[in-house]
Amino acid sequence: MTPQTPTGHTAPLIVDFFHDVVCGWCYVMSPRLRQVAAELDIAVRHRSFVLQDSRERIMEAFGTMEKAKTEILGHWEACAKQDDEQRIDIEGMRAESFEYPSGLAGALACQAAHIIGGDAAHWDYFDAVQNAHLSQHRNIGNPSVLLDIAVDLGFARDVFASRMNSEAADSRVQADRDEARKLGIRSIPTLIVGPDLDRLQTMPAPALKARLQAVMQNA
């Protein structure tokens, strides 16, 4: 039976979207999920999943920062082939001199947006940071860049900076990471859906819509 709200209306399906600002597959998936969520009246909750939270973790994963950038841009090539709008600028990022950033600063900034404006603000900010990273090849490991993006979206710079550097933002990031570990999530994007905690990953919008409709019908 589909759950009902106190007024008798059908409650929307809730999807938990685990993502990282530096994840190319998340960039591919986010607009598809936006489209399907609007069509099906689905509520999306945003969860931070930081692949590597520091330069040291990147070094552990790839050996050197140079190897990290080379291998990650190889992943970008696969993502670019699947991106519906061909937005990913691989050569632009390859030409940049800064080291490939970890996703932690971006996750904290996304949680700052969430504290200020909830899931909708989180999503808008997440998409803007991903665009800056994958399409504009900006250094989203730089807090000033993250604040510039926030201002472009209409946030007050000083308020956003305060939230981004707060214990509340850090706690939200850590809580999401703890939840991901509890669920055994190892790759992103991952969508956790419905009472059976179905797991969906990158797929075309029509397939995503069909899968979510099936969950809604069986809920």
From TrEMBL:
Cleaved signal peptide residues: none
Keyword Protein biosynthesis: no
Domain of life (superkingdom): Bacteria
DSBA-like thioredoxin domain residues: 15-195
Keyword tags: Disulfide bond, Isomerase, Oxidoreductase, Redox-active center, Signal
Keyword Signal: yes
Pfam families with a match to the protein in the record: DSBA (PF01323)
MF-aspect GO terms: isomerase activity; oxidoreductase activity
Gene3D superfamilies given in the database record: Glutaredoxin
Protein name, as recorded: Predicted dithiol-disulfide isomerase, DsbA family
Organism from which the protein derives: Neomesorhizobium albiziae
